[in-house]
Amino acid sequence: MTTEFAGERRRRSGGRAGHERHLLPRQRPFAQPRIRYRPTEVVSADELESIHLASLRVLAEIGMDFLDEGARELLRAAGAHVEPGSERVRFDPDMVVEKIRTAPASFTFHATNPAHDLVIGGDWTAFGTVGSAPNVADLDRGRRVGNRADYQNLVRLGQMLNPVHFFAGYAVEPIDIHASVRHLHALHDVLTLADKPFHAYSLGRQRNLDALEMARIARGIDDATLDREPSVFTVINSSSPLRLDTPMLHGILEFSARNQIICMTPFTLAGAMAPVTLAGALAEQNAEALAGMVLTQVVRPGSPVIYGGFTSNVDMQSGAPAFGTPEYMKTAMIGGQLARRYGVPYRSSNVSAANAVDAQAAYESVFSLWGAIMGGVNMLMHGAGWMEGGLHAGFEKMILDAELLGMVEAFLDPVAVDDDELAFEAMEEVGPGGHFFGAAHTQSRFRTAFHKPILSDWRNYEAWEEAGSPELPGKANRIWKELLAAYEPPPMDPAIREELDAFVAKRVEEGGVPTDF
User: Fold this and answer.
1) Which CA distances in Å does 364 have to 6, 74, 129, 434, 453?
2) Secondary structure of 247-295 in HEC code, one letter for each residue
3) Which of 143, 185, 192, 450 is most exposed, with minimal Cβ within 10 Å?
4) Can you give the pLDDT at residue 516?
5) Which value, in Å, is the radius of gyration of the alpha carbons in the chain?
6) Average pLDDT of 432-436?
7) Bigger pLDDT: 318 or 52?
8) CA torsion, points 13, 18, 24, 28, in degrees to nearest 10?
9) Are 143 and 392 in contact (CB under 8 A)?
10) Does the structure show a pLDDT above 50 at 20?
11) Beta bridge partners of 314
């Protein structure tokens, strides 16, 4: 096995068959859920329109800085106002409204394994891993700097966890790989250790081009098919307030040109990079999102773009970001209202500022998830493993979050109402004063009746105490080790693997991309 804990677990379990039978947690089958509830509308239609109009005014009168000359020239040719000798771009409101009309309401996100293809948009939702954490932590070795071995294990874990539908970036940054070639090795890892949809960072034009080619090779398709079928996504963060830098703009230019997915996400922290009021912060978020969305449609009308909401507040004493707050919940729901107003898919996140897998980690994630789901989220970033405001990825937190995501999936299941489910015969069999444990209706559903959590402990206090009072972090620690011990890489066509290996080796030999290091 390729993980640190595999051999020990195999020995204890007596081989793979016994291991799976006695140790692995039972999971729901991999399936993409749908949000069957009406999204929560936090503000009225008139108030939502006020945010929209304020955003258009910001873009028309203040404008936004675009730091790439090529992007500015495209916008100028499309009708935007670019000040001579300046990076400032102003947008006529009618131009904004007209351009974003071509953005698709939904699309298919193609995986290397077609069984893991996702629909992005409508009432579909999908949950991703944590992404971009610089550090990693577990109960055994504590908090440490990101590295490739931990990154690979988090990829394996994301592949094994059925409530995880896609990879939202490097779960932890593999800092021990030189920045010039890091993207090549890290993308190679996610494409060979997993077969779910994946993300590539927009950190310069050549990295974008490498990612697009690796996506094409891994799917075994030609360029024309890649241009028809979205197969990789990137997150574009504006440098709030009101600026898009060169690497981010290169991501839009390269990905949109190839019909690949742009998730346009301003990072607007109220009181820091945005006004301290939620309405003001949302107006700025919306202005920045619209400006990026316009550019995607100028580059290629009809290219897929997702409206990303990530507005939260800061602690006004320390300046530290706060997540899982009531303010975050409200902005997540209003972000969904704005995305629906423009007819595009919506991205939100499962986030927490907790430093340990404790009650704070759980309740902030529950709050974040509730805001996202009731906001109508189509793509949930950082769904599993986010800790410390994004500063570390947690192995135990990944299991806790998978538990929460599984509960969300069960919450989204439809409720069947038919003669069999209404159970008249069962009530007739039991009659007044009886119980339903032994009823035929109950026994036929004994194993499938309810969602079965992998972490919750429903024993009475005496039985729980006799078992050693197992606490959640310790159970999560055991489960992620068991999953890694049972991991097997997904199959890949040998010819595809050979081509992918050769591409990475060639680009590494060429030196990857220039860096400042």
Assistant:
1) 32, 42, 17, 41, 19
2) HHHHHHHHHHHCCCEEEECCCCEECCCECCCHHHHHHHHHHHHHHHHHH
3) 450
4) 66
5) 24
6) 96
7) 52
8) 170
9) yes
10) no
11) 321
Tens-place pLDDT, residues 368-405: 999 999 999 999 999 999 999 999 999 999 999 999 99
Contact (Cβ atoms closer than 8 angstroms) between residue 39 and residue 340 = yes
Phi-psi region of 145 (alpha: psi -120 to 50; beta: other; left: phi over 0): beta
- The single-letter code of the amino acid at 15 is G
Tell me which amino acid residue 476 is. A
Distance separating alpha carbons of residues 131 and 234, to the nearest angstrom: 12
Measured CA to CA, the distance from residue 204 to residue 246 in angstroms comes to: 8
Work out the number of other CB atoms within 10 angstroms of the CB of residue 462. 8
Structure tokens at 300: 């290629």
CA pair distance 159, 484, nearest whole angstrom: 10
CB 398 within 8 A of CB 480: yes
Q: Which two tokens stand for residue 468?
A: 């050693």
Please tell me whether the overall predicted TM-score, pTM, comes out greater than 0.70 for this model: yes
Beta bridge partner(s), residue 346:
307
Residue 114, φ and ψ in degrees, nearest 5: -55, -25
